[in-house]
Every structure is written in structure tokens, then in C-alpha cells.
């Protein structure tokens, strides 16, 4: 069983209608397993905007934008 490490590099607060942006780097076995597709599906369900991409070092980078509740639900407890 592989472990999944999630590292949030920074949180940038934007004062427009309480919207925040998260820059997230996910490491572990996250490329070639449908991780980006699943991330997009969850983000769409939560009405989160942003993008997700594979990085050359094997990690996945996510930029997610939404309100506090949306982002908390997106990254989990």
C-alpha cells in the first residue's frame, strides 16, 4: 500500500468575495493512476476553479480557487 503525502506550499488570500487560492503539491504515486482526472471531478463537484498538472519530478501541482468551505472540503479534514 502506498502512502500519499500532500504538501500545501502556500495559501494566497484574495479579498474579492472571500475567494482564496491554494497552491498544492502532491507527492507519492500520483502520476499514471488517474489522480488528475479524479481531482478535476472533485473540483467540479465543489465548484472550485483552477488547474492540475503533472510535474517533471513525479509530483502533481494543483491550483485551486474557491471560498473557505469549498477549499476545506476539497483538501479534506
UniProtKB/TrEMBL annotation:
GO terms for molecular function: acylphosphatase activity. The keyword Hydrolase applies. Its EC number is 3.6.1.7. Keywords: Hydrolase. Residues 21-77 form the Acylphosphatase-like domain. The active site is at residues 36, 54. Gene3D superfamilies: 3.30.70.100. It catalyses: an acyl phosphate + H2O = a carboxylate + phosphate + H(+). Belongs to the acylphosphatase family. PANTHER family: ACYLPHOSPHATASE (PTHR47268). This is Acylphosphatase. The lineage of its organism: Bacteria, Bacillati, Bacillota, Bacilli, Lactobacillales.
